[in-house]
Amino acid sequence: MTGRAGATARAGATARRRGPAQAVSLIAKAAAAGLLAGVCAGVCTTILSAQPAAEDTAGQTTEDRAERTANRTFYRDLRPAHWFWNGMDPLVLERILTRIKGADGPREDSAYHDGIAAYGPGNWTYEFERVGDAYMTRGRLQETLNHTHVAAAYYRKAAAAYATAKFPHFAENADQNRAYAKNIDALEAAWTLRGLIFERVTSTFDGQPVDGILMLPALRRGPVPLVLGTNGIDVLKGEFFDMADMLIARGIGFFAFDMAGTGSHAHLRLSPEYERLTRHFMTTLGADTRVDAARLGLIGVSFGGNAVVKLAMQQPAGLKALVNMCGPVHSVFMLDAGAVAGVEAMYRDAFVDRAKLTGASDAEIADALKGFSLVGQGLLGGGRTTPVPIFSVNAAGDYVAPDSDMALVTASTQDGTLIYSGEGDHCPQDRFMVTPVIADWLKDRL
Length: 446
What we know:
By secondary structure, the protein is an alpha/beta fold. The chain folds into 2 domains: 16-164, no CATH class; 196-445, 3-Layer(aba) Sandwich (Rossmann fold). The protein has 16 helices and 9 strands. The chain has helices at 20-32, 41-48, 62-70, 80-86, 90-102, 124-144, 148-165, 174-193, 242-249, 275-286, 303-314, 337-341, 345-354, 362-370, 403-411, 431-445; strands at 6-11, 197-205, 208-216, 224-230, 253-256, 291-301, 319-325, 390-396, 416-423. It has a 9-stranded mixed sheet, sandwiched between helices. Helix 5 packs antiparallel against helix 6.
């Protein structure tokens, strides 16, 4: 389906990966606990009153339909906590997932709830995009009334809905591309209404167009330190949200860009040398007179963490500190062909797409993965260390970036910090707690 040596601490509540039914239960509990944001009201009323997508039940018994639905699962990895952090409202999310599960129609794969092929009711992108559109409409109304802060809050929520609508982004999907463009537009509207600087930066890398988003404090005294951030293979540049806000509040600029093979850089192949794109942006932005080129930091989330740790070992000029958030550096890249065959479909498809491995066998995918091991590249292990400070954060027992990977990174820097938030899942589970800690750490190091 292609529509498709340091200090160690534990922080935050534990959480484990959940199936569809458990995810909906979590959403309901979060809503009952009062986690709905104030600006939900109008949109919640509109979305929650909508009926599930119509279903063609001709020739079907209730038992037939129930059995078929019960045997389906979600192609996408459901991440309610992640989407809450981004700004999705729990009740709206619950309603959307219920509509998708109850929808009927031609599917790309009948095994998946979220496999409705045609753009319309029950289609993943359609359901989330319409929520984003509703928030944008309310934001524009508030803006005409000069309620700029309320309008900005609506635009921020629209950006979160659009980010989910395009998940996981595949460049050949026109609907996902449209939702992704709306995600960036909504972010820009929210940011500029608050009087902050939001610029789209374009340049050329290896003869190909590349871009990113530059966000700067409105009030500055001379050049400011800058943090460059990238996510992994299924989360894009328009999803840093609170991280960007907290860095700006501390007088630090932020530049977000898509990893090679993803988002607006889908035309670039994800290869073991993909940190070169980060180097390119460090040089490009370091030439901006508003940026202090001697005080650059990096944030890499998930697959993006691999690249920033690699750069820490290479020590490019100006790099003063970096954050490795749940970045795999060795273990997962050692999977054999048999293990690759068991990888969840969404993740397998995403890696194959980003690495331009369409049609590759399990053995060929396993060989390609090995190239990303920083141990295999001779950069980690064997007593090698870097003076660049590294702050690592993850959930304990992460199956993508296991504790052994995190310990290896921390042992490879002369100034390392490692904290855990939650357990048994990929990436830290309480972003509300760890994000300000990260922002403070970067301010101290930059």
